[in-house]
């Protein structure tokens, strides 16, 4: 057990009491409740996994979750079978046909993105959904598969208690502007650089 | 439906064929399989949620997951009831007593961190666990509740197929050095700044 002298303990107590006063004041200032647009972007790991973690949190709070995958779909990821345990509390729609460099077919990619967006709009209209996860929507926007202004207008017109989480690299500036919360996942270090392959439970 | 002319479609196809060649070569270079140390740090949202998303992915791949919460614990988050659906495939241990500014008691915080670390070591020794989530371990290290060198030595000595994900702000440089993958969640924009309060399914 680490040794702690009395003086150190008292200093810590004073510091933390001050910290708590600041914290309580900050919490008291925050009074707004509303559905959020959350964007997870950047080159680092964790954009989709954080979005699925949020889905898990929402499910734990007893709400329903919608998932639309815009790009992925050609391969199976662990989240899907895991979320099947929640039965009809998860509405999962894999609309993508795989990475753009796998399909190599612009018309097919655009058609898939348009179908995915139609599904997203359908889920936005469903009042039983608490969180809508638009996985890799940023990729569809980046390649102009979808009209950015139309997507943003539709997101803004959603019902006010619906949370939406959007993932993918290179989020468009106008989407960042429209969002409430934006996290850039920054790559400090990645095991791929050290020759480690994609592994079950980590990448898929 | 978006209009696409033939020339544009062909240009896209060539670009993506090149991209695929690069991608395939990169994938072929990666041959190592090993348990990873993954660190999610930084001031942005998504450190713990990404870790729980990874837990979900691991569960979807049929593996067992261990969770040790070093700081949180005084309040309930949605992940816990959600993961209860997976029964004994999740070993969840809430060892923290709440934020350091809530306890205001250094000795109690140190004792809680030491108990949590002992539990982490126990789970590292359990060969049925595929992923160990050490939630907010970085906070315990930042306040020197635990000995950094001892923690890193123990992480390095774990069995080689165990993945460990560590969360919390201000990851220590020596831990970043020891890690395989480090993501800094950078705060681009946060709804708290706009006066939005902590909401169910989003913050807890």
Give a structural overview.
The structure is a homodimer of 204-residue chains. Chain A is an alpha/beta fold and 204 residues long. The first copy, chain A, has a single domain (32-194), classed as P-loop containing nucleotide triphosphate hydrolases (Rossmann fold, 3-Layer(aba) Sandwich). Helix content of chain A is 43%, strand content 18%. Chain A contains 8 helices and 6 strands, in the order αβαβαβααβααβαβ. Chain A has helices at 6-29, 47-60, 79-83, 100-103, 106-124, 137-142, 148-156, 173-178; strands at 37-41, 64-69, 90-94, 129-135, 163-167, 181-189. In chain A, strands 3-2-4-5-1-6 form a 6-stranded parallel sheet, sandwiched between helices. The longest helix of chain A has 24 residues, at 6-29. The first copy, chain A, is globular and about 70 Å long. At the A-B interface, helix 1, strand 1, helix 2, helix 3 and helix 4 of A face helix 1, strand 1, helix 2, helix 3 and helix 4 of B. Chains A, B: Pathway: Cofactor biosynthesis; adenosylcobalamin biosynthesis; adenosylcobalamin from cob(II)yrinate a,c-diamide: step 2/7. Chains A, B: Residues 4-27 form the Cob(I)alamin adenosyltransferase N-terminal domain. Chains A, B: Residues 1-22 are annotated as: Disordered. Chains A, B: Required for both de novo synthesis of the corrin ring for the assimilation of exogenous corrinoids. Participates in the adenosylation of a variety of incomplete and complete corrinoids. Chains A, B: GO terms for molecular function: ATP binding; corrinoid adenosyltransferase activity.
């Amino acid at each position: 057990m680490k040794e702690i002298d009395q003086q150190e303990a008292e200093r810590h107590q004073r510091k933390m009491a001050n910290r708590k006063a600041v914290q309580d004041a900050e919490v008291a200032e925050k009074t707004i409740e509303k559905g959020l647009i959350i964007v997870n972007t950047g080159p680092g790991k964790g954009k989709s996994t954080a979005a699925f973690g949020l889905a898990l949190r929402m499910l734990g709070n007893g709400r329903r979750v919608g998932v639309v995958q815009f790009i992925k779909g050609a391969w199976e990821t662990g989240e899907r079978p895991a979320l099947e345990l929640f039965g009809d509390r998860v509405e999962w729609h894999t609309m993508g046909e795989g990475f753009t460099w796998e399909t190599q077919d612009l018309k097919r990619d655009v058609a898939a993105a348009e179908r995915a967006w139609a599904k997203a709009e359908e889920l936005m209209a469903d009042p039983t959904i608490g969180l809508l996860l638009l996985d890799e929507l940023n990729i569809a926007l980046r390649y102009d598969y979808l009209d950015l202004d139309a997507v943003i207008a539709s997101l803004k017109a959603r019902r006010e208690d619906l949370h939406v989480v959007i993932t993918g690299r290179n989020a468009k500036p106008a989407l960042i502007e429209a969002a409430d919360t934006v996290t850039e996942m920054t790559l400090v270090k990645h095991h791929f650089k050290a020759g480690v392959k994609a592994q079950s439970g980590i990448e898929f």
